[in-house]
Fold this protein.
Amino acid sequence: MMGTIFGIPPQALFGQLLLGLINGSFYALLSLGLAVIFGMLNVINFAHGALYMMGAFVSWLLLTQLGIGYWWALLIAPIIVGLFGIALEKTLLSRLYKLDHLYGLLLTFGCALMIEGGFRHFYGVSGQPYPIPEALRGGQNLGFMFLPNYRGWVVVASLIVCISTWLAIEKTKLGAYLRAATENPVLVQAFGINVPVMVSLTYAFGVALAGLAGVLAAPIYQVSPLMGSNLIIVVFAVVVIGGMGSILGAVLTGYGLGLLEGLTKVFYPEASNIVVFVIMAVVLMIKPAGLFGRER
Amino acid sequence: MSVPSQGAATVAVQAGGATLGRIVGLVALGVLLVAPYALYPVFLMKVLCFALFACAFNLLIGFGGLLSFGHAAFFGSAAYVTAHTVKVWGLSPELGIVLGTVAAAGMGVLFGSIAIRRQGIYFSMITLALSQMVYFLALQLPFTHGEDGIQAVPRGVLFGVIDLNQPFAMYYFVLAVFLFGYAVIWRTVHSPFGQVLKAIRENEPRAISLGYRTDRYKLMAFTLSAALAGMAGGTKAIVFQLATLTDVQWQMSGEVVLMTLLGGMGTLSGPVVGAALVVALENYLAATNLPVPVVIGAIFVACVLLFRRGIAGEIQARFGGASR
């Protein structure tokens, strides 16, 4: 690797691509959760960003208040966020299933404001640092670029989670029930499967993915009450581009757009914030159902 | 789209409650005319700007069944355009507001033609995403001055005669703008166009099969709504002599949704009531220690769970259309 690629030093190019891949990992994890929840509940979970923030905050609180480190947080924080999700679904969301889907969006928007506002009230808006765990400090020199271990871990971890979620939904019996209940909940209930419990667990799983993404994000970005709200809007655009019909589509679009955003940062940094939205507009012009979506 | 149906109530208004509605309307107008003698004019002007904004938003959700989650883009962009043209180009305030409205209408055509390609929840997500793009543009473009916004916008002299630095002159001008916007919406809703829009809200496939080009109707409604939201934004920029990022942020889009939901989607007077309540509440909360977003979020949740018809909608349902 000598000289430059399209006039860009390779270090800078690969550095930005790695950042793009990391962002893409978070887009993928979050849009995966949104797609799973939407498939089952027909609700666009506006609180997803707030719950991602909650995951990061829970791991920060575990560390600073109880001295519980990163690896346990990776397990505990998603469980706490998931339990919170079950409470949310049981007390509030479940009352709206018979109504227009827009009310689900409005309700979760209100929840997002409350969660975010609550954390903001108690912890302020400034970011809190979260240390990278001992085992993942340092980095590898790959010859063409320097790869910090933690960032590599985030990409690998999110890939593992996304692929195993996809396999679980496509290849296991539970996944088959889930897909069946998405298509026709009444019929599945008639076969003796407890659909309401499944709905709760699906929501819990979806938001637990957001919580997990939050824990992964904590050492990279600062832990702040506002970290979720701007991210979730980009993820919405990702979901519109991918179309919510397919799990794999949501994941692939997430990674792809992250990379594209990274590339934009190299070649035309001014546009890097809006490139996802521009792509969304273009995709809607050409294929309104989204890249992987089915026209319903 | 099952936004609480107002069809029956509207008929009742047109038949029996018409005189009563007219009386309520005249009383409300009288109150607005004398209000600045009793209340702080700046507060009233804020209410009127947001009331117009909410009415414009309501035209889309209440009568067209389209939930836009990005109306701040039109409100905020028009505020920037008005502020820039008045401050930097030295235009008169009325011309600045007109230009802001035109800019918002242009954006409405563009965003509308993209967003109406999808329905329901996707429509909301697309409008939200597009408005976030506008936010990032406002953050980066040189003329918007980033975090500072455009400050110290002169209020100027209306039509070259009326000095808007006089609080009362400013108030009556804002009232006139509001009444103009409200009249446009009233006329639209009660026109054949408005009826077709309601038909699309209730059952789009049937409207299509009756031969209506529903996309065209939706785009026109979207553009009109964007233009009126822009008029509210431009007026706001003159009143507060300020256009900032707050005006284009997604929180602002959420706020206008709340005003309309609280007041009553699909009623003409609901958004005005909702705007007045939310603005008053925020004024009150600013003086206390309570976290504003938590309270706003709680009201959101309560509205969705407990009274989806909103205040004006509930009154209309109970008293057979006394309010409109």
